[in-house]
Design brief:
about 40% helix; 5-stranded mixed β-sheet; 2 domains; elongated; 10 helices
Length: about 270
């Protein structure tokens, strides 16, 4: 049975039919499983084994007899400390359950108490995360398009109104916004002043220079190196954008087109607000 949307949970069972697990072994087992990202539960005689949720289970114990027969969402395993983590990985694979920690939820949240609907995030984001509703109010419309570990849009918000719950520090992670935080964010909002020109124009101009420089040679490696150099400079100016996000940016031509579309959307939304 494949439970592809539910994480595997490991149960250290010390109830009826199983001997107690020594405290040191239990501590080592729990630590090794937690380090791999597995959820761990200890079940004793007074605690029911059956979970209220449909999570697939690996039940591990020092069985006094043979382990019970496998059930649709439960696998039983004898307690073998050196191989416990590997047994959990094998059970996870057998259930086709998600790999622990393989996906880090990453998405922006708009604080509408602070948001002024200025549309800077809509104009700035190249991945189509933002949009407007029928009332021309800015919204997060495409969470799946957001790039993990990229908080760039929050950096250009003049009111510190964009939060990323998984970010490492405040106020971006949702902490209280202080006056000093707000002043610091307001210093970053003018992208033209920050970059000495529009960010998209900067990329477009450097692309044109690169095309002229390498047009005759048609050296794709040099062209890629030039783009990387441009994106590195952009990252240094615009904030802590991960390199992998920068390299996932569309081509300069697509950037120019998306910039024009985003600017048009923002203007239309502001004109109709």
């Amino acid at each position: 049975m494949a439970l592809t949307d539910t994480q595997l949970r490991v149960v250290l069972y010390e109830g009826t039919g199983a001997a107690p697990i020594e405290s040191d072994d239990r501590l080592t087992a729990v630590r090794s499983l937690l380090e791999r990202g597995f959820g761990v539960t200890r079940a004793g005689a007074a605690r029911p084994l059956a979970p209220a949720d449909p999570s697939p289970l690996l039940v591990v114990g020092r069985w006094q007899d043979a382990p019970p027969a496998t059930e649709p969402n439960i696998r039983w395993q004898s307690f073998d400390l050196p191989n416990l983590a590997n047994a959990a990985e094998a059970a996870r694979s057998g259930f086709a359950a998600p790999t622990p920690g393989a996906w880090k939820p990453w998405f922006p949240v708009i604080d509408y108490d602070r948001c002024t609907n200025c549309m800077q995030c809509l104009s700035f984001c190249l991945f189509g995360v933002y949009g407007v509703d029928t009332a021309k109010q800015i919204q997060v419309q495409n969470n799946d398009n957001c790039k993990t570990n990229c908080p760039a849009c929050s950096r250009v918000c003049p009111e510190a109104a964009i939060m990323f719950p998984k970010y490492k520090a405040g106020p971006i992670n949702g902490d209280v916004v202080s006056d000093s935080d707000l002043n610091r964010e307001k210093m970053k909002i003018d992208i033209s002043a920050l970059l000495g020109g529009d960010v998209y124009s900067l990329l477009r101009d450097r692309s044109e220079r690169a095309r002229s420089r390498f047009g005759k040679e048609r050296d794709s490696d040099k062209a890629l190196a030039e783009r990387q150099k441009c994106l590195t400079k952009l990252a240094a100016l615009a904030g802590d954008i991960p390199p992998e996000v920068l390299m996932s940016l569309p081509s300069p031509e697509e950037i120019a087109r998306k910039a024009e579309e985003a600017a048009a959307k923002a203007k239309a939304a502001l004109a109709n607000s």
